[in-house]
Amino acid sequence: MRSGGKDHGRRAIVGSDPARPASLGRLGGLGLLSLPLILFFLGPLLALLVRAAPAAVLESLGQEETRLAISLSLRTTFTSTALSVLLGTPLAYLLGRRRFRGRRLLESLVELPTVLPPSVAGVALLIAFGRRSAIGQTLQVLGTPIAFTSLAVVLAQLFIAAPLYVKAAALGFAGLDRELEQAAAIDGANRWQRLRYISLPLTYPALFSGAMLAWARALGEFGATIIFAGNFPGRTQTMPLAIYLGFEIDFNLALTLSVILIATSFLVLILVKTVFQRDPV
Amino acid sequence: MLPKTLRILLTAIVLIGALAAGHSPGQPPAGAATPAPVNVTLNVYAAASLAAAFTEIGRRFSADNSGVKVVFNFAGSQLLSKQIVEGAPADVFASANTAHMTAAAGSGRMGLATNFVLNRLVVIVPTDNPAGITTLQDLATPGLQLLLAAQAVPVGQYALDFLARAGADPGFSPTYQADVLANVVSYEDNVKAVVAKVALGEADAGLVYTTDAVGPDAALVKKIAIPDNLNTLAAYPIAYVADSPQLFWARGFVRFVLSRDGQRLLQNYGFIAAAPATKK
Q: By CB atoms within 10 Å of each CB, which of A272, B154, B240, B264 scores lowest?
């Protein structure tokens, strides 16, 4: 067992030294064994990109339906991500920094929406916020039905995506060195100052990448949205819904929006990884 | 938890049942040569509105032809025809309209299509009818939450056709079409979603096929008929897929749907029989 020692015995293995990464091609057998799955991921995405003729993509971009879907997706995902950060940060801090009975239960509860099929979330939201529910009837009195509105889209995204932010942020808070906060406290920093000048700056990469992941997930949300919010252009038809229905009537529209979503999601993931790499938590 | 002995007993019964079923001689579709003992899975692509009726038809077909398992892919016809064009392993395609059958036939894969049933449009409202909708004219009352199927779904197009016809009819206000469309809160991706959401009471009314408002959902919705002159009688065509590796069974399934038994079964689910008299 050399687990305690430095990596003398492993120096000879290509690519195992984090300081000197090898190219993928030089990784030999391991690279070869990884290839099937890499190709499997890459194949369909490339096929889609190849199929999307630039001219057709540009033409679809000019269509009102495409623009409505993109603008609705941007508006709703920004709102749901902002809500995730606003409501999720205290919860993440609680989960990451405090020890209390039932913490594991609460943690599992928060993570539940990420493993549930989104269709289950959609049905649950419809029943909870629908016109026949207590919440729905209260709001009905105020004159705001929720189902089939943009608000329903935001709620569906919040339900599915916020847990990703909370989880990432909680991990960030948990990794924070307690002594730094204690030192600041000894120097007379109050609770707010400690949060503002110590905890938040140090966990910023985790919070940021959590928010980006939540945003990307919200952008791709489909199942809960189509059940809870329905499908109405400009009101509840987000990009994934427009892709699904476009597949049936306007294939180019589906291709165009798919290309945009693939590019955006890829950029988000790269960005998240870069932020983490530069400033490891 | 069942007692152990009971579990063993049940397992034994199931096993004996399975063996007995396996030994009974297969009943091939009438009028054709019987191939060797079979172990066939027949992939039937059928419009979502056929789900309940075809599930029973499949059960009957499997019972009549041992060794033939019928697996259904129920979805919007537009999606199914697209899948068939893209080469999906279908053996039979039953579409909710002619256009999507024609689209599928464009792939060169489809056999000759025959209309096997007709369906018609109807308005559904939740049983307690919170919006008090009793006539077709009521659909234009401002502030209703109305559900249609998306235009790509056949029933969605028929609904729009109905609104256009009603708008031109002297019995309706000239702004009827626009008023009703202003009440639409969602164009659902399939007709079953319209029924489900109206049955849940999330919408005040929906436009669906008569056949979607039978079965378990029927207790939760009330129907308002649409007269023939404003209605569209939807013809459902069915065809086997010519490149099916089990063409014999695919044709047998189509023949069963067109047979008197198959037609009677479909009628039980609210369809209007349309098959030409089958030769026997």
A: B264
